[in-house]
Amino acid sequence: MKFIKLEDWHPKGIDDLEPNAWLALRRRESTSVIAGPGAGKTEFLAQKAAYLLETGLCPPNKKILAISFKTDAAKNLADRVTERCPQELGSRFVSMTFDAFTKNIVDRFYSAIHGDWKPTQQYEVFFPNKRSVSDFWRRLQSSVPDNYQFSIMSEVRQMTDSTFESNVVGSWRIPAHGIHAPQSARDYIIVSWLLEQIKVSNDGQSSISFTTLNRLAEYIIRTNNHVHRAIKGTYPFVFVDEFQDTTYAQYDLLLSAFGLSEIAVTAVGDYKQRIMGWAGAKDDAFHQFEADFSAQRYPLRLNHRSSPELVRIQQVIAQAIDYEVSELQTNNHNQISGDAAWVCVSRNIDNEASYLAQWIASDLRSSTLKPRDYCVLVRQKPEDYEQQLSSYLTQYGLSLRNESVKIGKTTLQDLLAEELTILFSTLLRLGLGQRNAKVWSQLSAAIQLLRNKNQEDEKALRQVEHQLTNFISELRDAMLQPFTSENTRHVFERVIDFINLKDLRKAYARYATGDLLEINRSALEVFFTHCVESQSSWANFLDEFEGINHIPLMTIHKSKGLEFDTVIFLGIDDNAWWSYQPGNTEGLATFFVALSRAKQRTIFFYCQQRGSRRRVSDFYALLTSAGVKEYEI
Ligand SMILES: Nc1ncnc2c1ncn2[C@@H]1O[C@H](COP(=O)(O)OP(=O)(O)OP(=O)(O)O)[C@@H](O)[C@H]1O
């Protein structure tokens, strides 16, 4: 394949990059890009990947590793690269979540774990909460030797159950040479916590949290030169998206894997969107990264997402988070007439729900927007809002879908972003006869990748194309059969067989080891059955499966990285924001993330029946100072 000369390379799919983005793109060493919402940080990473691959700076035997925090963000980035690069180049862009990267190292290099630290090869992933931590502390109190009791308990008193795993365990390194007598009470507590997870439980397996997996991955890389060299040799370029959310453990893993080496790490993020402090995100991740990796910082100024009016309102909130924040700019246009943001105040929930349903229905009628151009955002418990709003929306033929809902061991939002799910629904769409040249060529490229065919081997590629054509025609026949549970079950199994989970495991690094693929296959089956039961034809089934006619409902945390034409932000009251302290930066940042998902409009709802608004009065004061008006509904 012929490479593009450096000076001839141009961005793909967008007109241009702003000057600092060009500098950050061309820099060969570690780089940090700090920019506000909608500044194109994810887009920048996709362009940088295309630049490195197409110019040959990332040579054919090497790959780019991109780490994101959420499955849909990892998928979104991978898709952007696939759209911008020929397939043989795009397949060298490995995009996965931090958790998948961590688990992958432990599963792949399991034999590099020694002695007491070795868990069972098959293990359960354990999600500790405050209760599991305090229970552990209680157990420790009754089991420690008398002479240790005092110091252990006084150490525990200085710890917080919510940050114990992320901050205390996450910043501790497993010693290279086995377990010696603990050096301190703190060591004793951490070692006991780790060993309790590693030891075989009643069901014959270890039960390990992601922080513990992370510590094991870091230990493997630090103590095994072969592993360390293999990882560095594969990935000369590493990208980290949403870097402001990096935890102590994740940062330490990055440092051990890629620090003090020739690997160029590009970290992008926005400290004003730092909303994972409660989950252990480091406060000074960018500064430390710039010092440890000799990274050069490039701020970006343009907002490519939101209308000028929304950018102006965002600026007011951004300044409340950081008064030194630079002026945001946008080249976008206001596409609506009238207000870009307003607050609807109601007395009771029925009032609010009825108004909201009526407003969306009328807006849909008078615009070209589709249900998925709207998004209902809430701080927590989306299921409560779903219950309160659904019957009102139904009256107008509308419906909400809670995208944060759990399906098996994953969530709907994550499941829908999985490669397995996308292949599955694309095959069904083609089976239904919905021909689309672009979809066909993307699917064909994905199947070639899955079957591991060399792009130069035209005969093999034709064979894959032929198999795919035959399968689609067989599928079409099967989908013409009556839509019964038996027939739909048969289609499910045929499609899964055709995809071939073994091939999927080989083709995608994050499926390579461990149980992620099995978790997703089971969840896919659960969700498939659920959709089949509520529908009567394949066409309706697919719309339901993909949620085409539903308005998404999700938590603000789950909305990170996403964008919608209109954001409907519900539940800005003291009950939903019970832990918010006036002026608290992380709370303001959460508010900022919600506001900045919108391209054209953000509508805020306050309902007296849900709670008062004393604690959250800052939010309303800021909106008022930005000129956002309130209306009684
Ligand atoms: N240089 C550019 N020119 C035109 N459009 C762009 C450019 N960069 C990004 N965009 C578009 O702007 C929108 C926001 O981009 P992106 O999601 O990459 O921003 P971000 O900085 O990662 O956002 P956030 O931090 O808010 O999630 C997307 O629709 C993207 O396609």
Automatic annotation (TrEMBL):
It catalyses: ATP + H2O = ADP + phosphate + H(+); Couples ATP hydrolysis with the unwinding of duplex DNA by translocating in the 3'-5' direction. The lineage of its organism: Bacteria, Pseudomonadati, Pseudomonadota, Gammaproteobacteria, Oceanospirillales. InterPro entries: DNA_helicase_UvrD-like_C, DNA_helicase_UvrD/REP, P-loop_NTPase, UvrD-like_ATP-bd. Keywords: ATP-binding, Helicase, Hydrolase, Isomerase, Nucleotide-binding. ATP binds at A35, G36, P37, G38, A39, G40, K41, T42. It is an enzyme of class 5 (isomerase). It holds the Pfam family UvrD-helicase. It comes from Litoribacillus peritrichatus. This is DNA 3'-5' helicase. It comes from the Bacteria. SUPFAM superfamilies: P-loop containing nucleoside triphosphate hydrolases. Its EC number is 5.6.2.4. GO terms for molecular function: helicase activity. Gene3D superfamilies: P-loop containing nucleotide triphosphate hydrolases, PCRA, domain 4. Residues 307-561 form the UvrD-like helicase C-terminal domain. Residues 14-307 form the UvrD-like helicase ATP-binding domain. PROSITE patterns: UVRD_HELICASE_ATP_BIND (PS51198), UVRD_HELICASE_CTER (PS51217).
